[in-house]
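Ops channel
N.P.: pipeline sanity check, posting one input/output pair.
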């Protein structure tokens, strides 16, 4: 047992009166039971770490590291209290994407959009925002929710500038 949780019970009986269990037998059984309990606890911890790792990986696609940490610390309970507050929302999309889609092969277009999404997401996280959703060729990011960020409007503008700089570097390459 650990605290209030019981992991298992060992019941041992001997119906033959000619052989009684000795103190050595009890110590051996206790050692085996303790090793089994340690292994069970290791498995439980491994499973919990695996679930947390998967949760972090999934949340990290859309949320900044500080938001991920807050959500993971709640044990994966994502429900947040509803409250009214001022937020800044950033929309960033690819200019003339329909004409671009007409010119490029589907695989090339997908690769280009994935690069754009990666650039935008990195910039959003750098300035404490989180990705709310991807809409076609557009990224929607929110600042000042769920965590408070006093300079959220400025952070959104800095994100937009960062995205433009990264796109310029990408286009020149």
């Amino acid at each position: 047992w650990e605290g209030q949780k019981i992991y298992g019970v060992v019941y041992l009986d001997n119906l033959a009166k000619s052989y009684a269990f000795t103190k050595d037998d009890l110590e051996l059984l206790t050692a085996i039971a303790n090793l089994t309990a340690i292994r069970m606890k290791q498995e439980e911890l491994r499973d919990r770490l695996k679930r947390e790792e998967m949760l972090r990986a999934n949340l990290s696609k859309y949320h900044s590291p500080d938001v991920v940490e807050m959500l993971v610390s709640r044990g994966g309970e994502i429900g947040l209290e509803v409250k009214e507050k001022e937020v800044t929302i950033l929309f960033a999309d690819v200019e003339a994407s329909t004409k671009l889609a007409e010119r490029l092969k589907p695989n090339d277009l997908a690769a280009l959009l994935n690069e754009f999404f990666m650039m935008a997401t990195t910039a959003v996280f750098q300035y404490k925002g989180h990705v709310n959703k991807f809409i076609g060729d557009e990224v929607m990011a929110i600042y000042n929710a769920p965590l408070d960020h006093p300079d959220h409007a400025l952070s959104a503008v800095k994100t937009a500038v960062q995205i433009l700089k990264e796109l310029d570097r990408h286009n020149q390459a």
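N.P.: looks fine end to end. DSSP finds five helices and three strands in the chain.
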